[in-house]
Design brief:
The chain is an alpha/beta fold. The chain contains 7 helices and 15 strands. A hairpin with a 6-residue loop joins strand 1 and strand 2.
Length: 295
C-alpha cells in the first residue's frame, strides 16, 4: 500500500462520524435547499473559481522566478505548503478532486461521456439549487465531448464523465464573463495543454494566469470571492507534492498552512463553502482547509 493510501486509511478511520438552465451563457442550477454549513471554519464566498495547472512540483513553482504572478498570489493570499495529489497520471487526479474518487480511471485515455452517475461537486451544487459551470480553454464548442482538438484534451475535464452533469454546463473559456457577478457560484477553469504548463513552460502558464484571471483575482479581493490555483500532480519526482494557492477577500493575506492536504480535502472544503449537506466519495472523510481564512 502506498504512503498516500496509508495516510488516507488512517485519516478515514480517525474521521468523525460526526437541470435547469439559469441563463444563456450556460450556468446550471437545480432545485433543493442549501443546508447550514457543516463546518463553521470555512467562509462562504459569493463566487469560487478553481484553476488547475499541470505536472509541476511545489518547488518548481513556489519561490521560482519563472512564476512571479503565482507567487504574488501566494504572498497576497495563502499557500498550502504540504498539498498533495492522489496518484499518476493526470486524469485520475481530476476525477479525484471533482468526485472524491478516481471512478476506476487509471490512465489518460478518453472516457465514454456520462459513464458514471456518482455524486460529484457539480451534481451536488446543482441539487442544492446553486449555480455551476466550467470554462475550458480550446474546447471546440460549448458542451463538446470530443476527446482532443489541437491543444484541448478531454482528459482534464472530468465533468464529461458524469451523466448527472449537463454537458452544456461545460463552456469554452471565451465564455468566461467579464462581469464577474455573472459567474456561477462554483466554477472550474481548465487551461489548454500549453497554458496549463503541460506542454509549455512554467513562465507561459504563469503569464496566462495573470493575463486571463488576474482581473478576476483583483476583483475577488474586494467582492467576497475566491480564486484557487492548484495542480493535478507533480513531476513524479517530489512525492506528488504540488502548489496550491488561495486568493481573495475570504483569505488572510500572507498566510500559509503546513497541514497536509490533498485533492479530497480541497473537494470537502469547496463543498462546505457551498453549504452542501452531502460530500462525494472520499471527501466524506476528508478535512476542511483551515488556518488561512480571514476572521
Amino acid at each position: 500500500m502506498s504512503g498516500s493510501s496509508v495516510y488516507r486509511r488512517a485519516r478515514t478511520v480517525a474521521a468523525s462520524t460526526t437541470a435547469f438552465t439559469a441563463a444563456a451563457v450556460g450556468l446550471w442550477t437545480g432545485l433543493g435547499s442549501v443546508s447550514a454549513h457543516a463546518e463553521s471554519a470555512v467562509p462562504s464566498p459569493d463566487h469560487v473559481v478553481v484553476v488547475v495547472l499541470e505536472n509541476h512540483a511545489y518547488s518548481q513553482v513556489i519561490g521560482s522566478s519563472s512564476a512571479p504572478y503565482i507567487n504574488s498570489l501566494a504572498s497576497g493570499g495563502a499557500s498550502l505548503t504540504q498539498s498533495y495529489a492522489e496518484t499518476h497520471p493526470s486524469q485520475p487526479n481530476y476525477y479525484a478532486m471533482f468526485s472524491g474518487d478516481t471512478q476506476g480511471v487509471t490512465d489518460d485515455s478518453c472516457v465514454t461521456p456520462g459513464f458514471s452517475s456518482a455524486d460529484n461537486l457539480a451534481s451536488e451544487v446543482i441539487a442544492a439549487g446553486r449555480t455551476w459551470g466550467s470554462y475550458n480553454e480550446s474546447l471546440p464548442s460549448q458542451g463538446s465531448t470530443t476527446c482532443s482538438d489541437g491543444d484541448y484534451a478531454q482528459k482534464h475535464n472530468p465533468w464529461f464523465g458524469f451523466s448527472n452533469v449537463p454537458t452544456s454546463s461545460a463552456m469554452t473559456f471565451d465564455q468566461f464573463p467579464t462581469d464577474y457577478t455573472q459567474l456561477p457560484q462554483m466554477s472550474y477553469v481548465i487551461p489548454n495543454l500549453c497554458s496549463d504548463m503541460h506542454d509549455c513552460s512554467v513562465s507561459t502558464g504563469d503569464t496566462w494566469l495573470k493575463n486571463n484571471l488576474g482581473a478576476y483575482a483583483t476583483w475577488a479581493a474586494s467582492h467576497n470571492s475566491l480564486l484557487v490555483v492548484t495542480f493535478d500532480e507533480d513531476n513524479r519526482l517530489s512525492g506528488n507534492r504540488i502548489p496550491t494557492v488561495l486568493y481573495g477577500q475570504p483569505v488572510a493575506a500572507g498566510s500559509s498552512s503546513s497541514t497536509r492536504y490533498d485533492h479530497y480535502d480541497l473537494l470537502r472544503t469547496l463543498e462546505d463553502m457551498q453549504g452542501l449537506s452531502t460530500h462525494a466519495g472520499n471527501a466524506s472523510s476528508a478535512q476542511d482547509i483551515t488556518g488561512v481564512w480571514a476572521s
